[in-house]
Inverse folding.
């Protein structure tokens, strides 16, 4: 960090944050800084905070192998033309991506989603896909987004970057409070706002771990059609159910109206270090001169001015993994799935042991159907000062739920992430967490 | 492309482009589409249009080697900890990047720029770096950008994505028309606009090929200090001078006030397929509660909501190349530099042969000091219909200069790019270009 530098001309540069983009001074930005900082300050703390996928199977040898496999695939598809294969892999590339055909096959194999590869935009992670959608849909300040609250922080942040207002929808035990949703739609209409889309994670959401059942998904599709808004379905955790019970179909696979933009990520199932995600945006778009295009083409135009194209090298690492696994990532993630299931099971059992039913401790929690997260309800508000105390004196980290409401108002909940821990760390971590909670509830 | 799909609910989705972000219907977006499309429609045409770097030395074996070299570097710096090295390379990573220390050494070695690695943000190409700067600086509609016109299309596009107005500054033979610049500053002030920054490419600019001399650079720094705006110095071509004459120093290396944000790219000198660039943003920023930060930290916060982090895998490909070359890319690009020099020389000689001095043909051109581009002045306005005719009937592509003015008004100039051609293609291409030009000037 530097302070203000004096100069020969006597006019040293100093910018004032209050004169930069409004998102920079917003509580949301401070959230992220605080959460990152507290983890760095207490490296000895066991962290139930970080939602990163498990690292134990990441191997650079796999990356080399996948790059070569994808390169061979290119050479074959170009009839032996090595130069053209090199160009595709190592040069500036097609804006909407070079693995769109493989992604389409992956969606068909793993999610029963069948789309034209031309409707796919390969992005720098799902985050870029989400920002591109919001940027496309936000033309005026009256274009707004709906999202269940508490919400993935990255969605709130992407909306801020696009200067797009987010209207919160209350959550319920089953995911969405539909009465509140209908009320929000009515209020928006009365206020002259246009709801362009509803962002949601239908399977094992972040931060709640909740999933929508099939009836709720169908109801949402009907509402979206009736009120003419899109559904932005983000699905990073769908391949990690806690058991093998049949799963509801994705909203996109139920979609008959091109109502759903499906936002995908290879950050958990592919390779986090590649930073590759995608949007399936097959919505028809009519241009002023009457041409028929796709929303994917609009997103591509915006992307060309944001990142030009997603790194073909990074795409090749994912493309090679898809080719190596017959376009399905389910079996390829068997080990990872077992880690997350085992961690979730261990955490839930460990909580029950330390906070038994009828124990009068005031602590309860949900039982997610899968994914990385669960929510602990505790008999005290969880603010950042408390997290700092928990880290410093009890050496355990978790995430205060207020960060997912985006308004800085502490609530009596905290999020636990179980994705990047060993069983020993879970056991010790829960001991520390219990000690912390007990210290707050005399 | 799909048309409108009918649905069971009878409420098929169709978006109207006119209700999406304003950049989508803008002439600039149509520019890019047209230019991309015409190249695809005429694959047999020789292209003086595409500004891509040469591909002839791109090799996947180098990528494998560089990834391993960077991995070994990580293992060493972590005292043999393979797990930690894997984590750094293959997991979600540090927002501002994982090769910032290597980039700092590269800047010191190649550009005499000496900065704290904490002031560097590694981005998805220079394009993301530029967008982040504009997003940070554009708080209200009165925050505007200056840019020399004709301008790199990507800069105009990034400004549109941030809803930031761009005020054009006239070019001159030596780069910037300073009288026009001062007039623009006065007009902006009178209109209540705040000029936040001036975007420029000081060396071998796109599209003009012009470079600023040292006196102009110093004058620009003084103006920026006097009127309190930043200089966004984009330098993709600096390592490709046409001869070995001493080069003016970068604006950043002359900067004593933290007035310059240096935007770098490894797209031409590193590996285009990695998509890695960076911003050096060491400007002090004062927060409302009095803390001293850097502009790089603000860019990092915005980036975390846009792309989360730049692919560590892609960064490793660049990091490994930097390590393999003692942090300098000058010698590593000797072959590429020779290609561009040779192509420029051949093109200039070929133009002189076909359009000799005193020949009464009305064709003239500039002689750039390096880079990929030169501008041909011709005795007729060059519009897109003419480019289509040139492609179809004469099988040669070039770029109508109006695309770099961003207003769709044809001018009597065209840009030639010489970067991705062989000598034979240049010779044949110039024959075709001469035939086309002669067909327009009876």
């Amino acid at each position: 960090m530097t302070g203000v530098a004096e100069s020969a001309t006597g006019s040293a540069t100093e910018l004032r944050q209050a004169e930069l983009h409004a998102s920079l001074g917003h509580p949301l930005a401070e959230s992220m800084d605080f959460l990152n900082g507290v983890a760095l300050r207490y490296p000895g703390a066991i962290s139930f905070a970080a939602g990163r996928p498990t690292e134990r199977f990441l191997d650079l040898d796999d990356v080399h192998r996948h790059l070569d496999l994808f390169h061979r695939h290119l050479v074959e598809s170009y009839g032996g033309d090595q130069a053209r294969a090199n160009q595709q892999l190592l040069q500036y590339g097609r804006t909407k991506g070079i693995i769109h055909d493989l992604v389409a096959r992956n969606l068909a194999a793993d999610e029963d989603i069948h789309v034209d590869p031309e409707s796919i935009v390969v992005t720098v992670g799902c985050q870029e896909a989400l920002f591109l959608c919001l940027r496309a849909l936000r033309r005026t300040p009256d274009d707004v987004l709906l999202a269940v609250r508490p919400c993935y922080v990255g969605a709130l942040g992407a909306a801020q970057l696009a200067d797009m207002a987010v209207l919160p929808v209350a959550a319920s035990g089953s995911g969405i409070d539909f009465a509140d949703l209908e009320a929000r739609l009515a209020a928006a209409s009365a206020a002259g706002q246009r709801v362009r889309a509803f962002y949601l994670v239908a399977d094992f959401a972040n931060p709640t771990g909740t999933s929508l059942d099939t009836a709720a998904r169908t109801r949402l599709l009907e509402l979206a059609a009736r009120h003419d808004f899109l559904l932005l379905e983000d699905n990073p955790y769908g391949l990690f159910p806690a058991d093998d019970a049949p799963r509801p179909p994705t909203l996109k696979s139920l979609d008959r109206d091109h109502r759903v933009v499906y936002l995908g990520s290879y950050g958990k199932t592919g390779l986090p270090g590649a930073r590759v995600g995608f949007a399936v945006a097959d919505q028809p778009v009519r241009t002023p001169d009457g041409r028929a295009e796709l929303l994917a083409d609009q997103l591509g135009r915006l992307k060309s001015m944001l990142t030009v194209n997603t790194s073909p090298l990074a795409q090749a690492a994912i493309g090679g993994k898809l080719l190596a696994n017959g376009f399905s990532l389910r079996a390829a993630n068997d080990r990872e799935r077992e880690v997350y299931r085992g961690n979730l099971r261990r955490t839930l059992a460990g909580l029950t042991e330390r906070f038994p039913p009828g124990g009068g401790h005031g602590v309860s929690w949900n039982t997610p159907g899968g994914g990385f997260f669960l929510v602990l309800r505790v008999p005290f508000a969880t603010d950042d000062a408390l997290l700092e105390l928990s880290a410093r004196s009890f050496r355990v980290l978790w995430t205060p739920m207020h960060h997912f409401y985006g308004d800085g108002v502490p609530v009596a909940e905290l999020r636990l992430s179980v994705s990047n821990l060993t069983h020993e760390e879970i056991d010790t971590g829960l001991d520390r967490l219990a000690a912390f909670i007990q210290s707050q509830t005399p």
